């Protein structure tokens, strides 16, 4: 659970409680009109127990010791996407920041994908995902967490939130991530691209549309101000 999580009387975590150490990294990519949203997830465990007997995962899953994206993993992801584009007879261009992990392994050739890297130190200005898409994703994911917490508090008897945290397996987190990703409005994505300069548009008009479409409402029983504070982690 992130800092700022809800609590109820008697739900105290002792110093001896083992804190879950699962960590997931998510690589998101989307097209300009928001009609296609994809992602891959990287975790620490190569074979999480919660994956047993599961035939289909919400996202493609990769693993390494630190749950980080690496050049090897990124190359594997791009090769898979390239094969998909070949099968669909499509050619695409991906705009990326210049993180080291986004370098393909030597000798890697992509026939239907072109990688275009943004100049250094410009991500916050011209990366569409940083213009509000990631923020929206975090807000929707946090709303999923809050709903679980409220349900636990309202249960009879109330369920300690320390127990709720244990229920969030890698698989459950991935399902929550998928719901959050697909809750992002296409209009939000379109206007994040505009704000990043991909379409010539009035800046005032873009910001106005973003303000209108990018507001994530809180779950039932929670005030907007409290929810906004919670998702700011």
From TrEMBL:
DDE-1 domain: residues covered: 22-193
Annotated Pfam families: DDE_1
Organism from which the protein derives: Acanthosepion pharaonis
Protein name (database record): DDE-1 domain-containing protein
Molecular-function annotations in GO: DNA binding
GO cellular component: nucleus
């Amino acid at each position: 659970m992130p800092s700022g999580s809800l609590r109820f009387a008697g739900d105290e975590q002792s110093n001896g409680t083992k804190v879950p150490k699962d960590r997931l990294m998510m690589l998101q990519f989307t097209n300009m009109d928001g009609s296609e949203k994809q992602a891959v997830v990287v975790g620490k465990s190569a074979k999480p127990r919660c994956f047993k007997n599961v035939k289909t995962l919400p996202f493609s899953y990769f693993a390494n010791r630190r749950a980080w994206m690496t050049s090897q993993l990124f190359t594997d992801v791009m090769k898979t996407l390239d094969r998909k584009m070949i099968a669909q007879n499509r050619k695409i261009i991906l705009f990326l920041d210049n993180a080291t992990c986004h370098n393909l392994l030597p000798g890697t050739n992509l026939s239907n994908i072109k990688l275009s890297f943004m100049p250094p130190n410009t991500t916050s200005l011209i990366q569409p995902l940083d213009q509000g898409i990631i923020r929206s994703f975090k807000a929707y994911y946090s709303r999923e967490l809050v709903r679980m917490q409220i349900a636990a508090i309202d249960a009879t008897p109330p369920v300690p939130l320390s127990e709720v945290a244990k229920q969030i397996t890698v698989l459950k987190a991935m399902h929550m991530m998928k719901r959050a990703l697909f809750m992002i409005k296409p209009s939000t994505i379109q206007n994040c691209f505009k704000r990043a300069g991909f379409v010539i548009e009035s800046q005032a008009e873009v910001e106005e549309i973003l303000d209108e479409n990018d507001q994530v409402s809180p779950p039932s029983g929670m005030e907007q101000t409290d929810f906004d504070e919670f998702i700011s982690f």
